Amino acid sequence: QQIRDSAAFSGPGSLNIGQGTCTYNVFNLGGQNRRVEATGAVGSIVRKARININRFRPTLNITAWEEVGDF
Question: What is the DSSP string of 21-52?
């Protein structure tokens, strides 16, 4: 949501969802291109994803979503 609310948004953020947490970092690659690196954790289970976005207005367009071992 922060990406859509502020075209200039980049940087870290976090969310608490139920018993889990999500931390993320948004990289502004120019224009509407963004890369998001996110880590989600519930207990001892941790997942990391790298997401590429090439448009966020009028709709968000994800061009790649990859689960990774580390960033």
Answer: EEEEEEEE-STT-EEEEEEEEETTEEEEEEEE
Segment 23-60, tens digit of pLDDT: 999 999 999 999 999 999 999 999 999 999 999 888 89
In contact, 38 and 48? CB cutoff 8 Å = yes
Q: Return the H-helix or E-strand segment holding 3.
A: helix 2-5
Residue 67: strand, helix, or coil: strand
Task: Give the other-Cβ count within 10 Å of 41's Cβ.
Answer: 14
CA distance 14 to 53: 19
